Amino acid sequence: MIAPPAPPAPPAPPKPAVRKDIVPISRVDPEYPREAIRKGVERGRVVARLNIDEKGNVMDVKIVESSPPRVFDREVINAVMQWKFPAEGEKFIGEVEVIFTLKDQ
Questions:
Q1: What's the CA gap between 58 and 31, in Å, rounded?
Q2: Tens digit of pLDDT for each residue in 88-104?
Q3: Could you write out the three-class secondary structure of 54-76?
Q4: What is the DSSP string of the chain?
Q5: Which residues contact 52 (CB under 8 A, 6 or more apart)?
Q6: Alpha carbon 104 to chain centroid distance?
Q7: Domains in the chain, ordered, with CATH?
Q8: Distance CA 104, CA 21 (A)
Q9: Residues 38-51: b if buried by 16+ CB within 10 A, e if exposed
Q10: CA neighbours within 13 Å on the CB side: how many for 48?
Q11: Tens-digit pLDDT profile for residues 25-39
């Protein structure tokens, strides 16, 4: 009697489509927009989705959520495009949250 073939190994779990625990190895902090200061906006939050290449460079930024809407988006995009992540040899999508708080001058 011949033994049946061993069942195939289960596939490796897929990497998450969007990684939320990414940490840059170098970063530029966004500036608090003057327009927000003039309007009395004391805090804000932006969630951005980043397309990161195999060398760890940010290639594209998409704002997923922002509160208040559109107030901080431009500053986040300008800063995050300069961030650098560890090179992984493959492209991936990451998500970061940037919090703005107006400190007493």
A1: 19
A2: 999 999 999 999 998 75
A3: CCCEEEEEEEEEEECCCCCHHHH
A4: -PPPPPPPPPPPPPPPSSBS----SB--PPPPPHHHHHTT--EEEEEEEEEE-TTSBEEEEEEEEEESTTTSHHHHHHHHTT-B----SS-EEEEEEEEEE----
A5: 22, 58, 59, 85, 91, 92, 93, 94
A6: 28
A7: 34-101 (3.30.2420.10)
A8: 30
A9: eeebeebebbbbbe
A10: 26
A11: 999 999 999 999 999
Token duo for residue 28: 């530029």
Q: What is the pLDDT of residues 39-79, one digit of tens each?
A: 999 999 999 999 999 999 999 999 999 999 999 999 999 99
